[in-house]
Amino acid sequence: MELRDQLSAALNDLWEDAVKSPKHVKAGLSKKMPELANEIRNGEFDNSKKFIDDLLKMLNVEEEVGSFGNITVRINTKWTLALGPKNKNKYTNIITKIIRFKRDLGRPGIYTNDVKFYDEYQERRRNILADTMQYELFGDVNWIEKIMRQDSSDEFKRGNWSVVAMTGITHKAFGECLDALDKASEIVSKKFSQLIYGKVYITSSIHGSRGTIAAYSDATDEMTLSIKAKESAGDVFSIIHELGHRFIRRFWKDRDAQEKFMRLTAEHRKIKVPVTVEDRERMLGEFLKMVDDVRNNVKAKTSVDLNRWSSWLLANKKNIQFLLRKYALEKDDSVLDEIKSTFISEEDGTVELDVSAQEDFWVSGYAKQKRSWQENFCDAFAMYMLGEKLLPEMTEIMDGLSIKSESIDRLVFALNEVAS
Ligand SMILES: [Zn+2]
Question: Where in the sequence is the domain holding 343, given as residue range(s)?
Answer without folding.
Answer: 263-400
